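Per reviewer request, we include the raw input and output of the structure prediction for the construct analysed in the revised manuscript.
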Amino acid sequence: MTSAPGASTAAPVPSHSRITSFDPDLVGDFTLELTVRDEGGLESTCEVLVHSVVGPPIAFCPDDIIADVDHPVDLHGDGYDDNWIAGFAWEIRQRSSSRTCPTPGSLPT
């Protein structure tokens, strides 16, 4: 690692592998450097900047669905958070009394 926020103790694990894992322990920018070396001793180096943030969770909802009346529909949602998702909750936010979806006869075939 070539740069990290002040008191960070984060490090790539394993550090001597083509693929590594990195778990930022502070908010801020981390610059990690990869060096590859061939048997003749020639080297090449590149860097990657990791922006570590703390923010609110992000909800991922499925695309809109056209459903038949009286037929269950499975809704698959997901979420992302920089910590852990503590829970999921589905609810009906608004009930519409007017028809807002196309009628079955008007759908393209």
